[in-house]
Amino acid sequence: MKFTKMQGNGNDFIIWDNREAKLSLDEIQKTAIKLCRRRLSLGADGLVVIDVPHNEDSSFSMRLFNRDGSESSFSGNAARCAARFACENKIAGAEMTFDTTGGTIKAIVEAPFVTLELGELDTKNIVLDAKFTYMDETLPVNYMHLGWPKSAPHCVVFLEKNDWRPMESLASFARAIQKDKELFPEGVNVNFLKILDHYAMEVYTYERGVDDFTLSCGSGSVAAAVAGWINGWCDSPVEVYNPGGTNIVIIEPKDNDKLLSVKLRGKASLIAEGSIFPEAL
Ligand SMILES: N[C@H](CCC[C@H](N)C(=O)O)C(=O)O
């Protein structure tokens, strides 16, 4: 079994081209769980599966399976990696359209950078002015779903710029939010956001399906930038600093700010390609 390893700002993925091998969904989910184990196997935050396109204008389709085998409908960093993989392997040109579980998107590859055109986000579906309380502490939160038509849930938690609490305490807060099955029946990615200035923010994402902080989350960066923009704290383009690198989020309002056209730009780096031995599985 041949693989490619890639990373987008430290969010690392194993890329599996399923166009010929045609593993079943069940086999793919089992493979994701086995291969993503750190130290025991290849190790990654998720497995990206490339397959034949579903639409005439698309060059390929992609799906992302988290390290616990669950599927996410939308991933910014994984989509950038998929686009660069497709370009390097001549599955698509440098400007391409491809299908994701969260809808058909466009990408432009200027290696190692990739810009994704993610389509339009309807602001009426974003929950503003919410709060979440855990262990006697209440923090302001916003939540939204990203991906069209199937979407991934994101919660943005606002921290003060000088809030330097340990990551373990943020992790406990994130897990408490994830446990709220009434608000988030499908689980949720929790993004902690600190506004640095009008064009820059710091974001740490505790990811659903990984059950840990990743070094970067592309969709989390989009959710945080959109929340910052909607609350009037930042303007586009927003530089989102994740521990693993920087994502740029470009937001263009349309129809009296009812719709936001969103682009995500960042690195998608090639690490290695090779064969997986049966013992890795
Ligand atoms: N890290 C990814 C998101 C993975 C999504 C996932 N954890 C979920 O929604 O289940 C990103 O760059 O957007």
UniProtKB/TrEMBL annotation:
<feature type="binding site">
    <location>
        <begin position="76"/>
        <end position="77"/>
    </location>
    <ligand>
        <name>substrate</name>
    </ligand>
</feature>
<comment type="similarity">
    <text>Belongs to the diaminopimelate epimerase family.</text>
</comment>
<dbReference type="Pfam" id="PF01678">
    <property type="entry name" value="DAP_epimerase"/>
</dbReference>
<keyword id="KW-0963">Cytoplasm</keyword>
<feature type="binding site">
    <location>
        <begin position="207"/>
        <end position="208"/>
    </location>
    <ligand>
        <name>substrate</name>
    </ligand>
</feature>
<dbReference type="InterPro" id="IPR001653">
    <property type="entry name" value="DAP_epimerase_DapF"/>
</dbReference>
<keyword id="KW-0457">Lysine biosynthesis</keyword>
<feature type="binding site">
    <location>
        <begin position="218"/>
        <end position="219"/>
    </location>
    <ligand>
        <name>substrate</name>
    </ligand>
</feature>
<dbReference type="GO" id="GO:0009089">
    <property type="term" value="P:lysine biosynthetic process via diaminopimelate"/>
</dbReference>
<feature type="binding site">
    <location>
        <position position="11"/>
    </location>
    <ligand>
        <name>substrate</name>
    </ligand>
</feature>
<feature type="binding site">
    <location>
        <position position="66"/>
    </location>
    <ligand>
        <name>substrate</name>
    </ligand>
</feature>
<feature type="site" description="Could be important to modulate the pK values of the two catalytic cysteine residues">
    <location>
        <position position="207"/>
    </location>
</feature>
<keyword id="KW-0413">Isomerase</keyword>
<feature type="site" description="Could be important to modulate the pK values of the two catalytic cysteine residues">
    <location>
        <position position="154"/>
    </location>
</feature>
<keyword id="KW-0028">Amino-acid biosynthesis</keyword>
<comment type="pathway">
    <text>Amino-acid biosynthesis; L-lysine biosynthesis via DAP pathway; DL-2,6-diaminopimelate from LL-2,6-diaminopimelate: step 1/1.</text>
</comment>
<feature type="active site" description="Proton acceptor">
    <location>
        <position position="217"/>
    </location>
</feature>
<dbReference type="GO" id="GO:0008837">
    <property type="term" value="F:diaminopimelate epimerase activity"/>
</dbReference>
<protein>
    <recommendedName>
        <fullName>Diaminopimelate epimerase</fullName>
        <ecNumber>5.1.1.7</ecNumber>
    </recommendedName>
</protein>
<comment type="subunit">
    <text>Homodimer.</text>
</comment>
<dbReference type="GO" id="GO:0005829">
    <property type="term" value="C:cytosol"/>
</dbReference>
<comment type="function">
    <text>Catalyzes the stereoinversion of LL-2,6-diaminopimelate (L,L-DAP) to meso-diaminopimelate (meso-DAP), a precursor of L-lysine and an essential component of the bacterial peptidoglycan.</text>
</comment>
<feature type="binding site">
    <location>
        <position position="189"/>
    </location>
    <ligand>
        <name>substrate</name>
    </ligand>
</feature>
